[in-house]
Amino acid sequence: MTRAEALKYRAAIETAVQSLDDETAAEVPTLFPAWSAETAYEAGTKVQYGGTVYTVLQDHTSQSDWTPDTAASLFAEVLPGQGGSEVGEWVQPDSTNPYMQGDTVTHNGKTWVSDIDNNVWEPGVYGWTEEGAAL
Fold it and tell me: Fewer Cβ atoms within 10 A, N terminus or C terminus of the chain?
């Protein structure tokens, strides 16, 4: 395979992975385009930075000091358990990447299902039902 062919395939892969659900996206960060400065980004695009997948929250042209891990108004980390397809270890979300109804996580040795959309609370505090618990 030539370098030109490899670059063509890489571009096709980076376009195709944008349609992955968040859970799958979090499992394959290296398939996403690497974040870079001075790049025009559209809201909803996923990029990887430091081995983590982030969703672009608003259209912008990136700057070297607006990295995904520091620019919370521009990027939201894709968290384990989001997307409702797999169980992930709970991570405290921000207001920009809350858990949605049906997302499933583990926390403190238990499995929890989010009862509500836009859930930023810790499982066991509010908005979660312990899986297998009597209602």
Answer: C
